[in-house]
Amino acid sequence: MSNTVKTKTFADLEQLIDVSTSAFQTLISEIHSSPTGGVNGDGTARVVLTGGTAGIRFLAALVSSDIDWSRVKLFFGDERNVAVSHPDSNEGQARAALLDHIDIPEGNIFGYGLDGGTMEPAVTRYEAHLKVEAPEGFDLHLLGMGGEGHINSLFPHTPAVREDAALVVAVTDSPKPPPERVSLTLPAVRKAQKVWLLVSGAEKAEAASAVANRAEYLDWPAAGAVGKEETILWVTEDAAPR
């Protein structure tokens, strides 16, 4: 596992999205080029999606791509405890931005199935999905980041960011509303070959510096996001590490 963080800086979010989505298409093409491509060795890419401004812009930019989505399996880094139809749903936003506009089998999309009720069944179900559908981990985990350094629903100094074994946890105390969520953990993130953080905005510069300098992950959860072979901080100039 590489602890080195590559930083790629862009003038604005539009340029960042243009270059990162191009790199994404190249990565998927490379996986699809061999019947044994990808970390799971079956020529199918496993990708974890993220929400947020940059994450949704990233997805929307892929609508016109020529990716063979039948050979891509999509997962979600976290989800709020709401139905997919709710405007706060990460899956719902991803569907509106990309998934409803491409030819991808519904069985290739792995949502959490939350509805505002008890979250533990969703945690158990998602753990089972990961063991069956991505037993060797992910080819790519996309991440957004908050100004305090949170990724997925892993916030500083919370039980979720301290989890060191389970791949999926229920979060009941998110400091950012809504408080109830289900999230992949740092152990799950670290099962990815590549981790890409998509970051923009001056308010995130301090957190970006923490990532680049591999600060303490309990203080800055994003600093604990490490890919097995590659970790890239895709960042706009206003958010670039100082």
TrEMBL record:
<comment type="pathway">
    <text>Carbohydrate degradation; pentose phosphate pathway; D-ribulose 5-phosphate from D-glucose 6-phosphate (oxidative stage): step 2/3.</text>
</comment>
<dbReference type="InterPro" id="IPR005900">
    <property type="entry name" value="6-phosphogluconolactonase_DevB"/>
</dbReference>
<dbReference type="GO" id="GO:0006098">
    <property type="term" value="P:pentose-phosphate shunt"/>
</dbReference>
<dbReference type="Pfam" id="PF01182">
    <property type="entry name" value="Glucosamine_iso"/>
</dbReference>
<dbReference type="GO" id="GO:0017057">
    <property type="term" value="F:6-phosphogluconolactonase activity"/>
</dbReference>
<dbReference type="InterPro" id="IPR006148">
    <property type="entry name" value="Glc/Gal-6P_isomerase"/>
</dbReference>
<comment type="function">
    <text>Hydrolysis of 6-phosphogluconolactone to 6-phosphogluconate.</text>
</comment>
<feature type="domain" description="Glucosamine/galactosamine-6-phosphate isomerase">
    <location>
        <begin position="26"/>
        <end position="234"/>
    </location>
</feature>
<protein>
    <recommendedName>
        <fullName>6-phosphogluconolactonase</fullName>
        <ecNumber>3.1.1.31</ecNumber>
    </recommendedName>
</protein>
<dbReference type="InterPro" id="IPR039104">
    <property type="entry name" value="6PGL"/>
</dbReference>
<keyword id="KW-0378">Hydrolase</keyword>
<dbReference type="InterPro" id="IPR037171">
    <property type="entry name" value="NagB/RpiA_transferase-like"/>
</dbReference>
<dbReference type="GO" id="GO:0005975">
    <property type="term" value="P:carbohydrate metabolic process"/>
</dbReference>
<comment type="similarity">
    <text>Belongs to the glucosamine/galactosamine-6-phosphate isomerase family. 6-phosphogluconolactonase subfamily.</text>
</comment>
